[in-house]
Every structure is written in structure tokens, then in C-alpha cells.
């Protein structure tokens, strides 16, 4: 798919957080191949800049912004810098997130919950905020929230992660309803198990594990189509529906034996 045209003869612009690795970097590579301009955000800005240069992308094609999504002023500032330097994006993808196991019996793990919600939820909203007013005035734009199949039901040791990703789904649905009359699209992606550094540490089986490049291709197509919600891979969409239908006693017996997400450290 070729890149759509945009104003002033420039290629369209995509703004991606969490672009230094994993899903964010795979999406950056996919959009680059489609001819888009890139606004890439990560805490590890030096590492991300090295990746951009290795791809042969000059300053006219890609810009790197160092920011921490855990700090509202930092990530919102990256959005403001993008507006000043590259203009208003056509697509904004909030990829940055963390996944850490927790045990609610341990007081220090309440900090894990706080940090997870701050990054995965508040950070996502702060990623979108700098662009919303201008997108509404323009009457076009796509906002993409990356949730997870873990949003569907709770998993042992995943209390923080499951809660945060369920929050992403609900927040993006609310935002979609708010933005519809302004001509904006809001896409929620729910990845299953994707082969990234984040999942490499999981000590349990991961059915339908998908290479990150294949995920990026399917996500790119879903975003281009303006899908309101897409589970990737499709097999996990079936699994998610079945899990949702399981009565609680049966779900508890099946999933209660599953390995827990490791706690920090």
C-alpha cells in the first residue's frame, strides 16, 4: 500500500511512541517502507537515533524525540515538539507500555500497579492530547491505542497489566465516540503473544506466538482500514471470545493453574 497524499506535497506523518524496540519499532519500519514520514519517541533516544540512521532515513524522513511516557510533561512536550518541527500527524500510535507481574500481598508491588497504570493509561492519553484539538479542527486523523488480549480477562500475576489494558480498551472506545463527529478515527489493537523483548521473559507457554514483523503488517492494514478494534493474530480473537464465555468456576479451574507473571526482580 502506498502512502496517501497530504498537504504541501509532503508524505503523511505517523507519530509512534515506544519506537526503540518491539512493536513500536516494527511499526516504524513498516510505515517507513510505505513512504511515510516518521516522528519516533522513546526514552532511549540515542539508541533510536542509531536505528534511524541504520535504516538510511534522513532528517527529512524521520525525527527522534526523547521522552518518558511516565511523565505527562515529557510525552506531551514531545508531541508539541513534533507539531513545531514536522507538523500535525495523520496517525498517532501509542505503543509505549510495560508489563510487570505483581502480588497484591506485597506492599512494594502497589508501586508496580501505580507505575503500570501511569505508563499504560495516563501515558497513552498524554500521547494523544497534544494533537486532538488540531486534528478535530482539521477534521481528520487516526489515534491508535495498543491494548492486549490480556484486557479480556484477568490472569494470575497480571493484575496490573490486565487492569491497564482493559483500561486502554475502555478509554479508546470512549475517545472513539467523542471523536467520531469530528471525522477522527480511533483504532484499538489487541495483540496476542508477539515475539518481542517484552514477551521473551515469560515463563509459560504462549499459543499462536507471532513474529513482530507479521504483527506490524497486520496492524498497518487494520489502521489503514480504520478498524475500530482488531485482535492480532485472528486465532487469539477466537480464544478471547471463548474465554469471555467461560463461566467463572470453570475459568478459575483452567487458568488458576497457569504460571504467574514474574514479579520485578
Kindly list the characteristics that best describe this protein.
265 residues; alpha/beta; Rossmann fold; seven-stranded parallel β-sheet; two-stranded parallel sheet; 8 helices; 46% helix; 15% strand; disordered N terminus
Overall outline? globular
Biggest sheet record: 7 strands, parallel
CATH hierarchy class name: Alpha Beta
Count of individual beta strands? 9
Stated plainly, the CATH topology is called Rossmann fold
Report the CATH architecture: 3-Layer(aba) Sandwich
- By CATH's scheme, which homologous superfamily applies? NAD(P)-binding Rossmann-like Domain
Q: Give me the number of helical elements.
A: 8
* Helix-residue proportion: 40-55%
* Radius of gyration from CA coordinates: 18 Å
Show unreliable segments.
1-5
Give the structural class.
alpha/beta
Q: Which strand-content bin applies to the residues?
A: 15-25%
- Could you give the order of the helices and strands? EHEHEHEHEHEEEHEHH
Distance between the termini: 43 Å
What integer is the average pLDDT? 92
Number of separate domains? 1
Quick structural gist:
The protein has 265 residues and is of the alpha/beta class. It contains 8 helices and 9 strands.
Can you walk me through this structure?
The structure is a single chain. The protein is an alpha/beta fold and 265 residues long. It has a single domain, classed as Rossmann fold. It has helices at residues 22-33, 45-54, 72-85, 109-138, 159-179, 212-225, 234-245, 248-255, and strands at residues 13-17, 37-42, 62-66, 91-94, 142-146, 185-191, 194-195, 210-211, 229-232. The strands form 2 sheets. The protein has a 7-stranded parallel beta sheet with strand order 3-2-1-4-5-6-9, sandwiched between helices. Strands 7-8 form a two-stranded parallel ribbon. Helix 2 links the parallel strand 2 and strand 3. Helix 3 (72-85) packs parallel to helix 4. The chain is globular and about 60 Å long.
Amino acid at each position: 500500500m502506498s502512502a496517501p497524499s497530504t498537504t504541501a506535497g509532503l508524505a503523511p506523518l505517523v507519530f509512534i511512541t515506544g519506537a526503540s524496540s518491539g512493536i513500536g519499532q516494527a511499526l516504524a519500519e513498516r510505515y517507513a517502507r510505505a513512504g511515510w514520514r516518521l516522528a519516533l519517541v522513546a526514552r532511549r533516544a540515542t539508541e533510536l537515533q542509531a536505528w534511524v540512521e541504520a535504516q538510511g532515513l534522513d532528517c527529512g524522513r524521520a525525527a527522534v524525540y526523547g521522552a518518558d511516557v511516565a511523565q505527562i510533561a515529557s510525552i506531551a512536550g514531545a508531541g508539541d515538539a513534533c507539531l513545531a518541527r514536522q507538523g500535525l500527524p495523520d496517525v498517532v500510535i501509542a505503543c509505549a507500555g510495560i508489563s510487570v507481574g505483581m502480588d497484591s500481598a506485597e506492599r512494594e508491588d502497589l508501586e508496580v500497579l501505580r507505575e503500570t497504570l501511569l505508563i499504560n493509561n495516563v501515558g497513552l492519553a498524554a500521547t494523544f492530547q497534544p494533537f486532538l484539538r488540531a486534528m478535530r479542527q482539521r477534521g481528520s486523523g487516526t489515534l491508535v491505542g495498543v491494548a492486549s488480549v490480556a484486557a479480556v480477562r484477568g490472569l494470575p500475576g497480571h493484575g496490573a497489566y490486565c487492569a491497564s489494558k482493559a483500561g486502554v480498551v475502555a478509554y479508546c472506545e470512549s475517545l472513539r465516540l467523542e471523536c467520531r463527529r469530528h471525522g477522527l478515527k480511533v483504532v484499538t489493537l489487541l495483540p496476542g503473544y508477539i515475539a518481542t523483548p517484552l514477551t521473551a521473559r515469560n515463563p509459560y507457554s504462549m499459543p499462536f506466538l507471532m513474529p513482530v514483523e507479521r504483527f506490524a503488517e497486520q496492524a498497518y492494514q487494520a489502521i489503514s482500514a480504520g478498524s475500530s478494534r482488531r485482535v492480532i493474530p485472528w486465532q487469539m480473537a477466537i480464544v478471547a471470545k471463548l474465554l469471555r464465555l467461560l463461566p467463572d468456576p470453570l475459568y478459575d479451574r483452567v487458568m488458576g493453574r497457569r504460571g504467574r507473571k514474574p514479579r520485578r526482580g
